[in-house]
């Protein structure tokens, strides 16, 4: 993180929450300014590209522009919605688990998916709401009353997050010298796709048994906009000897990362970093961890393969085979492939994404 005086001051901790410890290793992610990116600042755009090639994760300072501040306000409101949502009874929440209908929207209970090849179970619950539903592109899914009441807030958060995603995609489009609007034309707000909000809750874990709450993975789609308050998110930097490091949550910032689709579109030039969620470090481990995510994905029918039209995207090499799969099927396979209630035997590798490419280890 740079300490350039012209960027906003970094506030280290979130009011009302225990502080993130200073003695754990953290990822040195670049910190970019939304204001500068919106203004087309060429140095800032270059830094964004660099972050997307090197690690596929960066902080985005939202405090320095109206768009950013309004997104921060929407995120605050949805943190409260998330808390109330998870306070509903388990019986009520389970009514909105649509996984048996081959849908990844709705509720996932705690321990419903494996986090590793040994079959250990996850330690968080989450609820996904669909962009298409909220934007009126598809029929509304059944939802608890309190979520139905927050449709307006969800729509505002989705529009704000989608705006950030479009900005990131347009900068990458330009840096990759792709024909104009190549990326934005396959991520339209009003088209059918798998974009979603995810509300997440992980309760404090027993002090003598703190483990991974969400298993290591790459995100399935294109661009993720993540709001963290307590630590716990960890990334595995590239290279054979790399070790897991925490991503320190920064007030006023979103954490932006790329997913599998961007790796496939660019034949590995851009990076989708492996990450996981561990118990929050230090005294934060005694608190309940909530987080909020917007996942942007290519429209359902988009084939996940190398894009044509850029000389900067490495060509498909002889012997390299690109899987024929569209965005919808990819997300379903990845999102539901490790659910214990759906599969008798989980084939961990079959539901994998671009993790191997992400490690950047030659085999
Ligand atoms: O809760 C977090 O910080 C990250 C969650 C995450 O990686 C995911 O849901 O894909
Ligand atoms: Fe993720």
TrEMBL record:
The protein in question is named Fe2OG dioxygenase domain-containing protein
The GO annotation for biological process reads: small molecule biosynthetic process
Q: Which family does it belong to?
A: Belongs to the iron/ascorbate-dependent oxidoreductase family.
- State one molecular function term (GO): oxidoreductase activity
Segments forming a coiled coil: none
**Keyword set includes Iron:** yes
Q: So which domain of life are we looking at?
A: Eukaryota
**Xref: Gene3D superfamilies:** B-lactam Antibiotic, Isopenicillin N Synthase, Chain
Record keywords, A-Z: Iron, Metal-binding, Oxidoreductase
* Species: Penicillium atrosanguineum
Q: Which PANTHER family match?
A: 2-OXOGLUTARATE (2OG) AND FE(II)-DEPENDENT OXYGENASE SUPERFAMILY PROTEIN-RELATED
Cross-referenced InterPro entries: DIOX_N, IPNS-like_FE2OG_OXY, IPNS-like_sf, Iron_ascorbate_oxido_reductase, Oxoglu/Fe-dep_dioxygenase_dom
Residues of the Fe2OG dioxygenase domain: 193-298
